[in-house]
Amino acid sequence: MRITILTNGPGELWGWVRPVAAELRKRGHSISLWLLPCPFSSGHEREAASLLGVDKLEGPSGASRTWSEVTHEKTDRVIQMGGDIAFGLRMSDSSNAPLTCYTYGPRKQIKGVKILTAYESQTKNIPGVTAIGDLVKDALEMDMTPSALSQWKWPQKENSPRILFLPGSRPAIRNAAREWLTDVKSKILAKIPNARIRTLFSQFMPESEFASWKKSGLEPVRAGAGAAMREADYALTQPGTNNFELMHCGLPALVVAPENFLKYIPVAGVLGILSNLPFIGIRIRRAGAMRILKRWGYISLPNRIADHKVMNEMYGDVTPEDIAEEIHEELNNPEGLKRTREEFLSLSGESGAASRLCDIAAAE
């Protein structure tokens, strides 16, 4: 059977598509993978996608070109994991192939489309949806190879906490964050002199950028999250898919969204064009952030799933001093860290979401 997958950003590609593509290959299906236009792109999606063993790889291209080209795809099934569902509907209609969509966020019910999500708590926001588990959990297990684990060495000394910085996959935010995280590191070391801090990047981090982080003293490393996160004691990150990676690994963390970084967050569609204009752009981005908080109450994904605070988070007028103080307090509360780990793992759910998704998509 020929199965076409549509996806867009780095989190969806590596966290969702990777385990599904592996499962489809195991079942002997032919896989066509389309990278959709995405304002959240890291710029390395095609390089990463080339490692997934698919039979055909398309994109990323501009929106108008992709809109035209999807009608030429001949396929038996369409699976959409990220991006505008209009592309999946167009391909599904033109090829007369059933469409299955996997999503974390709210989706309108669409006749004839099978909508899947990760957690039961998400189903209340998506009519007619089926919860199958989190694909990210399956992706993390793919990182846990003997080779990866043997290469990840982080010796722990007594009373020497191991802290991971996760600056994200988008170059604009990473570049802005480097100097800021250098300041955060110095503030943390002022409070916890024996702390060991590393910065975790994907395997697709360009060498030139990697070198600049090393020069800044942030000790960058390239490693699979499934291996690296299980060797740390605490993490500092931003809102995104890696929040679920931390949860599945049982790693306590602080999710931070400083207001002065809003200008680096991409916005899709017409609002994305307006958000780049002087003066009104930051207002649009701030209004968008407030809408998210009003709808969900939290910026971190595990907190939205649990509907209460499990993962620490800070947003708004946040300084490096604030972050260092929060991390210092957390690391000095071992009972609190233990409770967080236990609740993370209780929320994590069972693995095997990729297998369940493939069962449902192939049965259409």
Largest sheet properties: 7 strands, parallel
Q: Specify the oligomeric state.
A: single chain
How many H/I helices? 16
Q: Which residues form runs of ≥5 with pLDDT under 50?
A: 266-282
The helix/strand class is alpha/beta
Helix fraction bin: 40-55%
Helix-strand string: EHEHEHEHEEEHHEHEHEHEHEHHHEHHH
Termini gap: 12 Å
Computed over alpha carbons, the radius of gyration is 20 Å
Shape: globular
| Strand order, largest beta sheet | 3-2-1-4-5-6-7
Q: Provide mean pLDDT, rounded.
A: 86
Strand content: 15-25%
Short structural description:
45% of the residues lie in helices and 16% in strands.
How does this model look, in words?
It is a single chain. With 364 residues, the protein is α/β, with parallel strands linked by helices. It is 45% helix and 16% strand. It has a 7-stranded parallel beta sheet, with helices on both faces. Strands 10-9-8-11-12-13 form a 6-stranded parallel beta sheet, with helices on both faces. Strand 11 (234-237), helix 10 and strand 12 form a beta-alpha-beta unit. Helix 1 (10-26) crosses helix 5 and helix 1 packs across helix 16 (353-362). The two termini are 12 Å apart.
